[in-house]
């Protein structure tokens, strides 16, 4: 129990430090930039394994770690709440990172209703300001 609380305290301190380091350093997005899911369509019925294609207008894709204005990389949120992701910190495990600059992903999901949403982030995995995020779409896995 004592060990656990020490671990929690250290984690808290690290989080506090990283938020201080990054809070003033968010990357501007380009005016009018938008990210969207090309495929599947909102409401589409899909097989359990299907491809998600990512679209981006008004900005460019660059691998994580790349210093280049007006760029970022995709993050895919499956069945998650984008509002629960802090926008002044690196995106953690709430989304899948496409830090290699990938623009599609083959997913395998269980039967039923699922949601998909994209969030662009900078070289440090921190969402841009203003945030560039897609509409949240729903798919129905057959
Ligand atoms: Cu990332």
Characterize the structure shown.
With 142 residues, the protein is an alpha+beta fold. It has a single domain, classed as Immunoglobulin-like, CATH 2.60.40. It has 1 helix and 9 strands. The chain has one helix spanning 2-23, and strands at 34-39, 45-46, 49-57, 60-61, 71-78, 96-97, 104-108, 112-121, 137-141. The strands form 2 sheets. Strands 2, 4, 5, 6, 8 and 9 form a 6-stranded mixed beta sheet that branches. The longest helix is centred in the N-terminal third of the chain and has 22 residues, at 2-23. The chain is elongated. The termini are far apart. Mean pLDDT is 89; it is low at 8-15. Residues 64, 73, 75, 91, 97, 99, 121, 125 line the site of copper (II) ion (CU).
Mean pLDDT: 89
Helices and strands, in order, run as HEEEEEEEEE
The bound ligands are: copper (II) ion
Given this structure, which CATH class is correct? Mainly Beta
What's the helix count?
1
**Could you describe the largest sheet, including whether it forms a barrel?**
6 strands, mixed
The parts where pLDDT drops under 50 for at least 5 residues are: 8-15
Helix content: 10-25%
